[in-house]
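Data deposition worksheet. Section B asks for the primary sequence of the deposited chain exactly as it was used as input, without tags or linkers unless they were present during the calculation. Section C holds the resulting structure in token form. Section D is free text for depositor observations; keep each observation to a single sentence. Incomplete worksheets are returned to the depositor.
Section A, Depositor: J.P.
Section B:
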Amino acid sequence: MGRIPCCEKDNVKRGQWTPEEDNKLSSYIAQHGTRNWRLIPKNAGLQRCGKSCRLRWTNYLRPDLKHGQFSEAEEQTIVKLHSVVGNRWSLIAAQLTGRTDNDVKNHWNTKLKKKLSGMGIDPVTHKPFSHLMAEIATTLATPQVSHLAEAALGCFKDEMLHLLTKKRIDFQLQQCSPNVAQGNTSSPYIASTKHDEK
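Section C:
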């Protein structure tokens, strides 16, 4: 058994809210509060479901909402908190007065990720790209990995040349990997050794 639906689907209006609906919802909440979202649409005279009313109020109509540009201090707070909690937008928004989780998420995805990348900082790990490249180089420099990386790079170059020229290329399998040369392909990326032109 699932949850009880929040409304009767038959008589529910969908789509864009009208200014009249916004006024009805705002007036009702100003008088009665937001205690029971399932009852609010009916009591306010709206043909909407409770979830729609809750989201409209939370994201657009609340009097304490801030609209417009994020300040430098807000951006710094978002970046600092994101480095600790990741993409938990509601936790981040709770620390920014008047901002919704959706506003914070959209600002991160459209502005801050690009801003950090432009500054040479990985927006996922919050480490400088140079630091990440050094980690990758260190990993690839270990004796156990370096020969595999070299072989994979050789295969990758051959495959890219084939894709770019769209001509038939016979892989030099002895340079790629002994397992591939013997037909033991465990990689989904190397399905066959022959590429036929059509």
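Section D:
Residues 163-198 have pLDDT under 50 and may be disordered.
The two ends are 54 Å apart (CA to CA).
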